[in-house]
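note to self — DONT lose this again. spent like an hour looking for the file last time. sequence + predicted structure for the chain T wanted, 132 res
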Amino acid sequence: MEQPEGLIEDKSKVCLLKKSLYGLKQSPRQWYARFDEFLLKNAFVRSEYDDCVYILKREEKVILYLLQYVDVILMAYSSKEESNMPKKNFNGELEMKDLGVANRILGMDIMRNRDKGELFLSQYNYLKKVAE
């Protein structure tokens, strides 16, 4: 890094960077690389169909799916207890905010029937907007 023009050179001082990683062209790629490395190190497997879907298995049974889009992560898990493990690991390595149960992501509504074990995705509002 070069010092700004007009700054008196003083080896005992440093320049304060005022621009974060956000907003730079390489930001999404850097975030994905760090996230990918972290998950693979923690026993997740990347989906062969989509690079932004990660699967955690225990005894050949899928217990957790992580779906990543830029810096948003959606978790789908088989039991509430299983959801706590990645949250604990993330908080140590990656800054994370738990926003609770997802009802909408990327323009899709998420509807569940827990009694029947069903999960539905709907783009009704998007289709309505397009039709109008």
